[in-house]
Amino acid sequence: MMGIEFKISVEKDLRKIDAVFHENIFKKIDELKKFPETGGVKKIQTLKTFYRMRVGDYRVIFQVLKNDHKIVIVHIRHRKIAYRDF
Q1: Starting from the edge strand earliest in sequence, which strands make up the sheet with 70-78, in order?
Q2: For the whole model, what pTM was predicted?
Q3: Which member of 9, 51, 54, 83 has the greatest number of CB atoms within 10 A?
Q4: What's the average pLDDT block by block, 10 residues per block, for the chain (86 residues)?
Q5: Angle at Cα 43 formed by Cα 85 and Cα 27, nearest 5°?
């Protein structure tokens, strides 16, 4: 089972998302503890250890650190701007 950590950037991202969607997003993030069996997860092709998970119109961008047994949530953004910093 993997542990989950959040980058500081996630707090900023969540402020831009309507609170109505937060519960759904956090339910899906909780499912990531079972990675790689979690459904709806795809690897970001250009980055070795980064993945994305779809939650409605939002994307949870995360990094898997297998040696440390943890997942680091990097961004939670609308699908239109989710990949801008990559």
Answers
A1: 3-6, 70-78, 58-65, 50-55, 41-43
A2: 0.92
A3: 51
A4: 94 96 96 87 90 96 94 97 85
A5: 85
